[in-house]
Known about the structure:
With about 210 residues, this protein is an alpha+beta fold. Helices cover about 25% and strands about 15% of the residues. It has one domain: Mannose-Binding Protein A, subunit A (Mannose-Binding Protein A, Chain A, Roll), CATH 3.10.100.
Amino acid sequence: MRRILLLLPLAAAAMGSAAVIAAPAPQPPMTFFVTSNGPGKGGDLGGLAGADAHCQMLATAAGQGARTWRAYLSTQGNNAVNARDRIGKGPWHNAKGVEVGKNPDAIHGINHPFNMDRIVTEEGSLIPNGAFEPNRHDILTGSTLDGKAYPAGQDMTCNNWTSSTTGKARVGHHDRAQWNSAHDSQGCTQVQLRASGGDGLFYCFAAN
């Protein structure tokens, strides 16, 4: 009996050690999301600064405001900006801790991991696609497939994200292979963005 009693604490200690070893790794912090909503002014996001501020606001509400957030948007004309150059080096994880990309080259490659289940909002919610009503899968980017700006001339950025009336924007589909460059919007008003399956949403990346 004495021998059995002595072995019990040892067995308990061993089980405790095993429990510690088997504990799951902590979930990586969110470093990427698609906005759950836009500013509500169509293609007028307040320029890049306004779009960045919107990303920062949503991230802060989700408890990730300590990071520097950047909107995945390109601009055109003088001092044009490439969306891919704004988002840091990666890797990036969504609100559920799932990796969505290792680096800029990976997310712009043909084998990128983006899909509807991975591209979730800052709240971890899915954005409805064409199988739902309303469809919101058009995501503002103003970018080519490789994440770069379009040449000046034909407006692809709603006047560099300051127009809610004239112009148009290049959008991607969060649920398809062309996540960042699928087609042009019908225009820059909120109504026109919704008419083609969008809602003025855009991608946000933690740049640090």
